[in-house]
């Protein structure tokens, strides 16, 4: 029954993807356009179509993966039902054309994965995680309500030009509220703190949808806000997006680098990649505000292409992590190893995903980062000093992010896929069920296909921007006077590998024991995550403030044991969210004193409230 339901879900999501592809590639709109009233209205345009394709690209393999992954777990029926409802809420946001349906779907999009986490992990830690996730996303998400309701009130959902006749400051309030609301759900720094908490604890196929698509639906809201609803974004909106994108990319990849748990590392990596997407969106907003529509279209296409690419390889990596967890019995990077050999389907697929997210040619991540780089370089050549400076800083942030991401996933490949298993359970690891293998292999194939032929998608994405000029079609990319011949690069790489293999001939490396200072070789002396990132940690210790604790155990004056514990604390939790939580708890404690239990006191509260309202009405403050 559960298996059949999941197959039906996959087929349904595939049909959603087909409808989205028709809207995107044929440039068609279906159903209603946006309306300002609250009567339910549904429709889809090419921009919605692009994100519907992302929902299908991730949702279908996630449902297929769950067919085998839910076997033997607790509450499989409930999780299977939530697996089907979750993508529907995402689709609801994308096809909503009125404020009520949009906001209702938006709230469900938050609540459904929370329910899935509670069903899968109903212990105290799970409940705590869900509480923090809901608290942060709902407080930040209030901005979405403010922005959408103000847009509806001003008639700007259906006609963005109506915002020009709105009272002074309304457009700025909408922009700020929208950036906070959509930015929180997208996981932009410093509003990201919920993401590395919630994504790792969800079931892996739910994590794939959360990280691969849910945050992209928030990006969809940012695109609508910046390039459509604000009717010509002011320059500060573009600069704010550029700053948030660059900060998110750098902070995300830095903290990903120091994680020891694979799923938590992937969650921080999502923050990094959303930052890259928002860098492209910020460039598009700045170009659009300056009337350079062709460049705006190119930058928007770069952002959407990276969003699509990230959806594919992040879903692959989360599903692969779930398979490794099930087979090897954990996701501690220092306790894994040898997965590439032990799991002949999952291991190579995860290798492809890790190489793609590291931005290596000719896989999918490389092409979108290359187009984003071209867009930011174009921004750096603008006459306006502030815009050019912002473009230059964004280029530097993107370059640093790319380098650190390559290092981060080299660590993952070295510690997880290569080497020898470090635990008895890891030594017995074997590949997982057929549907789980099928899902990751299909996503790995998509990584290769999108990397070889990004030009087959880019023109349709560029057509979503304000400019009419679109990049020429074809497998490779040709933008801004330069080109990326992906197929030629692939052929050259294949030829180089072939030459190296032939040159190597039948020679093989002779295995030899590793020198460990004269001690007997032990798995605990193998290369660790902390050792891999130590040079970066020492370089950035003044910023990251790592914590270190060393215990020396002596008996009879002889050192018997040295225990070392180190961690990189999340500074945003300690410096920003910690004080905010303490302030909120103090406020709640003070407010609780009003709950006296005295009926007379409650009547006095009501009389006071009514008196205050009457006074405000008398003064005209209530309109």
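^ structure tokens above, recovered residues below v
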């Amino acid at each position: 029954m559960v298996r059949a339901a999941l197959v039906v879900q996959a087929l349904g999501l595939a049909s959603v993807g087909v409808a989205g592809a028709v809207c995107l590639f044929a440039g068609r709109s279906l159903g209603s356009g946006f309306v300002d009233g609250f009567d339910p209205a549904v429709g889809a345009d090419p921009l919605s179509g692009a994100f519907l394709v992302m929902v299908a690209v991730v949702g279908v393999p996630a449902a297929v993966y769950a067919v085998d992954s839910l076997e033997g777990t607790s509450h499989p029926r409930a999780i299977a039902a939530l697996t089907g409802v979750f993508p529907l809420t995402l689709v609801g946001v994308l096809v909503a054309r009125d404020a009520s349906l949009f906001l209702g779907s938006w709230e469900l999009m938050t609540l459904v994965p929370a329910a899935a986490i509670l069903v899968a992990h109903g212990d105290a830690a799970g409940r705590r995680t869900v509480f923090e996730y809901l608290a942060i996303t709902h407080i930040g998400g209030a901005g979405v309500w403010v922005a959408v309701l103000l847009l509806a009130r001003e008639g700007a959902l259906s006609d963005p030009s109506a915002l020009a006749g709105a009272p002074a400051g309304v457009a700025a309030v909408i922009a700020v509220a929208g950036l906070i609301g959509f930015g929180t759900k997208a996981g932009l720094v410093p509003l990201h703190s919920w993401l590395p908490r919630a994504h790792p604890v969800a079931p892996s196929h739910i994590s794939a949808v959360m990280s691969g698509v849910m945050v992209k639906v928030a990006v969809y809201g940012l695109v609508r806000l910046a390039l459509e609803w604000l009717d010509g974004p002011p320059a500060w909106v573009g600069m704010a997006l550029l700053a948030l994108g660059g900060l998110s990319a750098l902070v995300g990849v830095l903290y990903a680098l120091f994680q020891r748990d694979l799923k938590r590392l992937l969650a921080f990596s999502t923050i990094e990649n959303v930052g890259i997407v928002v860098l492209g969106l910020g460039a598009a907003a700045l170009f659009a505000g300056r009337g350079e529509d062709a460049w705006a279209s190119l930058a928007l296409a770069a952002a959407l292409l990276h969003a699509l690419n990230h959806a594919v390889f992040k879903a692959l990596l989360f599903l692969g992590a779930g398979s490794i967890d099930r087979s090897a019995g954990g996701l501690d990077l220092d306790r894994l190893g040898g997965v590439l050999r032990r799991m002949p389907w999952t291991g190579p697929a995860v290798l492809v995903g890790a190489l793609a997210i590291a931005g290596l040619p000719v896989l999918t991540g490389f092409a979108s980062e290359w187009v984003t780089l071209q867009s930011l370089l174009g921004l750096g050549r603008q006459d306006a000093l502030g815009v050019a400076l912002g473009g230059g800083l964004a280029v530097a942030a993107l370059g640093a992010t790319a380098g650190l991401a390559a290092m981060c996933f080299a660590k993952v490949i070295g510690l997880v896929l290569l080497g020898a298993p470090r635990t008895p359970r890891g030594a017995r690891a074997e590949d997982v069920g057929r549907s789980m293998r099928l899902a990751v292999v299909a996503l790995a194939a998509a990584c290769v296909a999108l990397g070889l032929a990004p030009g087959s998608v880019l023109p349709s994405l560029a057509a979503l921007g304000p400019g009419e000029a679109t990049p020429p079609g074809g497998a490779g990319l040709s933008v801004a006077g330069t080109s990326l011949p992906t197929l030629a690069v692939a052929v050259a790489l294949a030829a180089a590998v072939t030459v190296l293999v032939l040159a190597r001939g039948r020679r093989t490396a002779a295995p030899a024991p590793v020198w460990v200072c004269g001690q007997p070789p032990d798995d605990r002396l193998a290369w660790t995550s902390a050792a891999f990132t130590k040079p970066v940690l020492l370089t950035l210790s003044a910023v990251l403030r790592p914590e270190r604790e060393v215990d020396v155990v002596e008996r009879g004056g002889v050192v018997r044991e040295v225990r070392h514990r180190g961690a990189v604390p999340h500074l945003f939790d300690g410096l920003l969210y910690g004080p905010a939580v303490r302030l909120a708890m103090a406020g709640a404690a003070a407010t609780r004193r009003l709950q006296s239990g005295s009926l007379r006191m409650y009547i006095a509260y009501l009389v006071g409230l009514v008196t205050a309202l009457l006074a405000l009405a008398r003064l005209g403050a209530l309109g």
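The chain is about 70% helix and 5% strand.
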